[in-house]
Structure formats: C-alpha cells, structure tokens
Amino acid sequence: MRIDILTVIPELIEGFMNESIIGRAQKKGIAEIHIHNLRDYSTDRHRKVDDYPFGGFAGMVMKCQPIDDCISALKAERDYDEIIFTTPDGQQFDQPMANELSLKKNIIILCGHYKGVDYRIREHLITREVSIGDFVLTGGELAAACMTDAIVRVLPGAIGDEQSALSDSFQDNLLAAPVYTRPADYKGWQVPEILLSGHEAKIKDWELQQALERTQRLRPDLLDH
Ligand code: 6GU
Among 43, 84, 198, 200, which residue's CB has the most CB atoms within a 10 Å radius? Predict the structure, then answer.
C-alpha cells in the first residue's frame, strides 16, 4: 500500500514514519509512505502556501494552487482510491475506518493548517474528511501520523505476530485483556495464577472474561453495537 502525505511541515512527520513498526513495514516493502512539502509546489516566488481569507476573517488560508498542483502531479502517476483531508469537522477516525483504508492501494492525506484550506479544494478534490477526535490540533500532521500508524500496523506482516493486530482492543469491540511478563512475582506483585497454569483453554476463557469485564467497566458504549 502507498500513502502520500501533503504537508507544510514535513519535519513533523518524517522522523515518526522511519521509526519502529512503521519504519520496519516500509523497509519490508509492506507500506510505502511519501511525504510532500507543499512549498515545493508553490509557484509563488516566496514559496507561499497561504493567503488572507476573503471576507476579512482572521487567520490565513491555504491556497488552492500548491495543493492542486501536488495532487495533479501524483494523480498523473497513479490512481488514488481516496484523497483524505484532516480536519476537526471531519468524520471520526476509528478502527473500522483504519481497517477499511488498509485495504486501499493508494491514498493521499492532505494535512489541514492555518484557519483551513480554500474550500474549493474540499469541494473538488477531497473524497473524505477525517477527524481524530473532538479537540483541535494546530495542524493535521499529528492526525495524519496517527491515521497512517493505525492503517499500516494492520497490514499483513507489519506486526511480527500475525495474530496480534487482530487481538487488539477495538478489533472486536472489546478492550484487550491485561498482559504480563517475567518475573511472575515482582516485589510481591503477582501475575494471575491461571496464566502460569499452562492450561490453554482456561487461559483463553480467562482472557475473554477479562476483556468483557474491562469493556463493561471502562467502555460500556462498545457493547451496545
Ligand atoms: Cl484531523 N485536524 C486538526 N487540526 N485538529 C484535529 C483533527 C484534525 N482531529 C482532531 N482535532
């Protein structure tokens, strides 16, 4: 899968994409992530990407030209399944959306900034508007990084253990059961006896009971679906 991220602050995302699971997924050829600096596409001699809003409103607005030219250049190379715009007024990102987007071949994520982008971009080029929650970030870069992380880690082979992405919290609308590692007794803090029993079926049952109990207690709304 290929993800193209369009931003005015590439430095905010670059480091993140080359680390850990996402970095490894790229080296393994499971995901290809390209970050584009919108300033590189500006025809303005000062590489300007924003301008004052019509109507005398406060703040700056991202101009059509650099965004349109960048998207056109990408579209000339390949077809895109989605052109996503990150914005607090978008559809709420969640695990089903991450799963769905992970099945696409090529997607673009445009990071919103300043007061917003010229609305004509949203009307004519964007296929989906996405928010990562009910709060306002200074820019869409962190949202794009969150989404990319959630999408790439469910791609087959991205995580060492094939099972582990499927047993995540939220994949089955249940929070994950607690996990423990050695030692079994740390300063008198004990690992649940059942996990040391070697009894596979009983352990699976315990895991499910824990998941149900934690979901009921912490996120009862998930059980309504
Ligand atoms: Cl996608 N962008 C911005 N700027 N703020 C947000 C967001 C996105 N999602 C939640 N807050």
Answer: 84
